[in-house]
Amino acid sequence: MKVANSYIFDVKPYVPGKPIEEVKRELKLKSVIKLASNENPYPPSPKVLAALAKSAKDINRYPDGGCFALRGVLAKHLKVKAEQLIFGNGSDEIIVLAVKAFVGQGDEVVMAKPSFLVYSIASRLVGAKIHEVPLKNFRYDLEGMKAKLNKKTKIVFIGNPDNPAGTYINVKETESFMKAVSQDTLVFFDEAYFEFVQAKDYPDTLALMKKYPNIITTRTFSKIYALAGLRIGYGIAQPEIVDILNRLREPFNINSMAQTAALAALSDQKYYRGIIQETQEQRQYFYDCLGSMGLKYEVSFTNFILIRVNNASQTSAALLKKGVIVRDMTVWGLSDYIRVSIGTVSENRRFIKALREVL
């Protein structure tokens, strides 16, 4: 339509990984595994499932728009003030809210390339000028990003660890970068995978907020907490930033079941530590198998691995016919790579077997 803003037509919609049931229907397969969307392959904690069953009878009522109970427990868990938290329909919503709140047409946004596609999509939808700084050896080129900063820069996006690379920036690199950024520029740390990081030099961005009030950090219950289907993420920032974002947030954006599940998940850290341990072991299994096959991969600090193949589209299509869904990275500009989520023991073995056959 002619009335639509012209820059909207520059946006390529986000294409999620295919659902299992869709692949079964299309290819007439009885058994399909999905290793494309970085989901937790295990169900949520038994405490979560019990809490959901108990609370289901109340879904005729609107949820608590302020997430009061969850806000209090999460604030204590993170050791931050309750007013520093904002909740979103996945952390994606907070990305969109931040762009709407702080970026206008003609303003500038800095991000890595490739990186999480929603950064670019949200920025293009408000008519922003985007500076995409290519990764160097699949790590952030922070010096290159510094060179793009100016008075028009409103937001810098940093995925830490990053999707799809799986790499992270350390404490020293983070501090050095923050010193170069104007306090008028929001530095957005997307830490969707931070629970999987087992590195002593991983930065504590929540502590850094005291020194740099222009930091906002987002995390999610979709990954380690296995609540992807309920869509709940959260942001941590100074109360002034949270207040601005809340003015744009739609009422009741977090449904009651999601709030209940998140509360119960926080109460069972032991269960999720077990999943983290299992993920580490299976990640090493991937490394060993890929190494024996002579395939290059990027060392990951997440629950997924970026693997180099001859042709990503052909390889992912061939795997799909075998009932294995992986992520073809061509749309990210990585035509020789697939991204594979770490699944259960049996899923991972099935993937490796299928990959050997395909290659």
Q: Could you describe the 3D structure shown?
A:
The chain is α/β, with parallel strands linked by helices. It folds into two domains: 6-43 and 270-358, Aspartate Aminotransferase, domain 1, CATH 3.90.1150; 46-266, Type I PLP-dependent aspartate aminotransferase-like (Major domain) (Aspartate Aminotransferase, domain 2). Helices cover 38% and strands 15% of the residues. It has 13 helices and twelve strands. α2 packs antiparallel against α10 (256-266) and α4 (91-102) runs parallel beside α5.
Topology:
Blueprint: H1 20-27, E1 33-34, H2 46-55, H3 68-78, E2 85-88, H4 91-102, E3 108-113, H5 117-124, E4 129-134, H6 142-146, E5 153-159, H7 171-180, E6 186-190, H8 205-208, E7 215-220, E8 233-236, H9 239-248, H10 256-266, H11 269-292, E9 304-308, H12 312-321, E10 324-325, E11 327-328, E12 337-341, H13 345-358
Parallel strand pairs: 1-10, 3-4, 3-5, 5-6, 6-7
Antiparallel strand pairs: 2-8, 7-8, 9-12, 11-12
In short:
Helices cover 38% and strands 15% of the residues. With 359 residues, it is α/β, with parallel strands linked by helices. The N and C termini lie far apart (46 Å).
Query: What would the CATH topology of the largest domain be?
Result: Aspartate Aminotransferase, domain 2
Strand order of the largest sheet: 2-8-7-6-5-3-4
What is the helix tally? Answer: 13
Largest sheet: 7 strands, mixed
Work out the number of β strands: 12
User: Roughly how many Å apart are the termini?
Assistant: 46 Å
Tell me the strand percentage band. 15-25%
- Helical percentage: 25-40%
Q: What structural category arises from helix and sheet content?
A: alpha/beta
State the CATH class of the largest domain. Answer: Alpha Beta
Which stretches are poorly predicted, pLDDT < 50 over at least 5 residues? none
Mean pLDDT: 95
- What would CATH call the architecture of the largest domain? 3-Layer(aba) Sandwich
List the helices and strands in order.
Answer: HEHHEHEHEHEHEHEEHHHEHEEEH
